[in-house]
Amino acid sequence: MALAILHREPDQDAARFGDQSPIWRTCLREVVFLDEAQASLTGDSLGQHLTEGHAYRLLLEILCGLQSPMTGETQVLGQFKSFLATLGKDQPGLARLGQRLLTDARDVRAKHLQGLGSRSYGSAVRRDLAGCRHAVVIGTGKLAAEVLPFLADDGRTVDQWGRGEEPHLVRDDGIRYCPLSAIDGIDAPAEATALIVAAPVAADVIERVAAKYVGLLRVIDLRADVGQRPLAFDAHVEVVSLQDLFTRMHDAHATAVPHIEAARQDIAWRTRQYELRDELRPFGWDDLCA
């Protein structure tokens, strides 16, 4: 069976494809991997339906960060690796295809997309820490983990707020963990502070945490889809949205265009190699890329 995917916006109803359809989800998209019967049922109203080389090329561009607002960003690669780790033993074909995509994506990145400047959320927010002696992160997931290593530069102290019930303490890495369930009982330093929102938490929770820091200067909101009222802070507090960050990164990296074009050409060549593969697949999807 040929590779077939449905590429669409996230949070759409997946019921029509049943529980057996592997779905890779990110904050910006969903990719549904279809079998032959499902592929015949798709329509334009459900999303972008692609097969074989067209599907492979789109997947590779996504993994290289060329379909992301922050061109060349690296988080999407980790998200795909996590998706592959969830596949059952009944999906060896998709697992092998995923490994081929990862290998190609790493090669393209190494050849064309290194050295272009900030290509991760952590490095992107670093410039917004200027003048702040303290940094605060809300969130304990993958995005927070990517941001944290960039916050302790220049002797900066760091607080991390999360929903876990771990005790209020300073960990071995020097970061003070603060449970959201104990907001009222935790004291905060009065130093100049930058607050980074790295989890899909509600505005009122963010504002309660922010109120603890009397020296708050800047809020960097990395939520992809706020979906509620804007954050409310005093006029002296600067709010940097995820879209602001994307716009800034796009403008700052106009010189990357030749490298990005070279990456797209490399992807096109790798797609042709995929299309020209010589494989016997008598058992359909399970034998894909065997």
- What are the segments in which pLDDT stays under 50 over at least 5 consecutive residues? 285-290
Principal-axes geometry comes out as: elongated
Structural class: alpha/beta
Q: What is the strand content?
A: 15-25%
> Which radius of gyration do the C-alpha atoms yield?
22 Å
Beta strands, count: 11
Structural features, described:
It is built from nine helices and eleven strands. It has about 290 residues and is an alpha/beta fold. The protein folds into two domains: about 5-115 and about 255-285, Beta Polymerase, domain 2, CATH 3.30.460; about 120-250, Rossmann fold. α2 packs across α4 (about 90-115). The longest helix is centred in the middle third of the chain and has 22 residues, at about 90-115. The protein is elongated and about 65 Å long.
Topology readout:
Blueprint lengths: L3 E5 L14 E3 L4 E4 L2 H4 L8 E4 H12 L11 H11 L6 H22 L7 H5 L8 E5 L3 H6 L9 E6 L6 E2 L5 E4 L13 E5 L5 H8 L5 E6 L16 E4 H11 L4 H19 L15
Parallel strand pairs: 5-6, 5-9, 6-8, 9-10, 10-11
Antiparallel strand pairs: 1-3, 1-4, 2-3, 7-8
Summary?
The protein has 290 residues and is α/β, with parallel strands linked by helices. 34% of the residues lie in helices and 17% in strands.
Features:
seven-stranded mixed β-sheet, single chain, 290 residues, disordered C terminus, 17% strand, alpha/beta, 2 domains, elongated, Rossmann fold, 11 strands, Beta Polymerase, domain 2
